[in-house]
Amino acid sequence: MRIIRNSFTALIMLASISLAQTASAVTIDLVYEFDGVEPVQTYGTVDITQNGTDLDFVISYFGNLGSNADIHQFYFNLTTPPDPVTGLVITADNAPDNAYTLLGPSPSVTGGAGASFDWGVSFGNGGGPSGNGILQTATFTLSADQALSVSDLFETSSPNNTPLVNVAVHFQGTATRPGSEIVGGVVPVPAAIWLIGSGLLGLIGVARGKKAT
After folding, report:
1. Three-class SS of residue 60?
2. pLDDT score for 99
3. 41 and 62 in contact (C-beta within 8 Å)?
């Protein structure tokens, strides 16, 4: 029984560590093309990291929408319970031309295919004319009147042709037929938490079996 208790304690500690890491940083794979025509694959990623009371973003494009595609707009939801977020601003951006600008929340941001989001970031001509393939990585920091956390971005939106998503990115100058695409992704459930859950269930089963005998 002491081994089981020790193992149970260790699993609880691992779960706490995993949850803490999940709360401070997350990588969202952009895999769902909103028209439902392009295949489910990783078109890019959105990395979000806690930076004190701010959030750091890195949006990366992986090239499979054509070499001239570039990042145009980013869409996301943001909740800071119990009050709506106020004073949201963009700082520390890597705009090579015009500064990035906020979109939303009134009116909400149309993300295409029936989806709407609270907020957006327009990268405009940050990389020059659309479709020149320059802006394939965008970085910036979000700050507000109140502290922001990674979990504030976990609210979902629902496009017509894909599963629910937390964030989405509009790419312009794509090699696909419309010449632009919106792709989205969902916050992943850490595999470690599932493994920990399976381990806890296994230990409970062992403990019950020993008690019955």
Report:
1. strand
2. 86
3. no
User: Phi and psi of 121, rounded to 5°?
Assistant: -125, 125
Cα 179 → chain centroid: 24
Q: Which residues of the chain have pLDDT under 50?
A: 1-22, 191-213
At residue 106, the pLDDT reads: 86
Per-residue pLDDT at 170: 95
* Residue-level pLDDT at 131: 62
Return the H-helix or E-strand segment holding 44. strand 44-51
- Cα separation, 59 vs 155, in Å, equals 19
Instruction: State the Cα–Cα distance between residues 4 and 84, nearest whole angstrom.
Output: 45
pLDDT of residue 1: 46
Query: Cα 128–142–15 angle (5° rounding)?
Result: 125
Reported in sequence order, the residue ranges of 135-204 that DSSP labels E, i.e. its strands, are 137-143, 167-172, 180-185
Instruction: Give me the residue label for tokens 């894909």.
Output: 162
The predicted structure's pLDDT at residue 87: 95
Q: How many Cβ atoms are within 10 Å of 177's Cβ, its own excluded? A: 9
Q: What was the pLDDT predicted at 59? A: 98
Extract the tokens encoding 85.
């977020």
* Residue 199 burial (C-beta neighbours within 10 Å; 0-12, 13-18, 19+): middle
- Tell me the pairing of strands 119-122 and 70-76: antiparallel
Cβ neighbourhood burial of 174 (10 Å; 0-12, 13-18, 19+): buried
d(CA 116, CA 146): 24
